[in-house]
Amino acid sequence: QVQLVESGGGLVQPGGSLRLSCAASGSILSIDTMGWYRQASGKQRELVARIIKGGSLDYADSVKGRFTISRDNAKNTVYLQMNNLKPDDTAVYYCNAERRWLGGGVAYWGQGTQVTVSS
Questions:
Q1: Beta strands across the sheet bearing 77-82
Q2: Residue 4, CA distances (Å) to 52, 63, 64, 65 in order
Q3: Which of 13, 66, 68, 98 is most exposed, with the fewest beta carbons within 10 Å of its own?
């Protein structure tokens, strides 16, 4: 059982910045990967960034150089620093936590936080 709560979304102008936070609670020790996904209106949910147990990072090509994912293990919180935001970044952003094993796994999701980039 893992619960995820996101915060930090809002309205920002192109070129601006936001920092999203995701606080995790429950069976934290079972988590292998935490990350951020987003879903724009009418589009499928897509990976934005993730951090794997041990510190490995993975970013979508569209956000490389602009977004940074980090994790504070002591606070059980993962962050997504978003800089130089573009209108195409507009979406609902979801925190994700995964427990993986051979041939399967389980995923947990937060409720989502809206990010709107508009002038």
A1: 2-7, 18-26, 77-82, 67-72
A2: 17, 23, 24, 26
A3: 13
Alpha carbons within 13 A on the beta-carbon side of 47? 15
Pairwise CA distance, residues 70 & 107, whole Å: 19
Which amino acid is present at 118? S
Which tokens hold the place of 1? 């059982």
**Mind listing the pLDDT tens digit of every residue in the chain (119 residues)?**
899 999 999 999 999 999 999 999 998 878 889 999 999 999 999 999 999 888 899 999 999 999 999 998 888 899 999 999 999 999 999 999 999 888 999 999 999 999 999 99
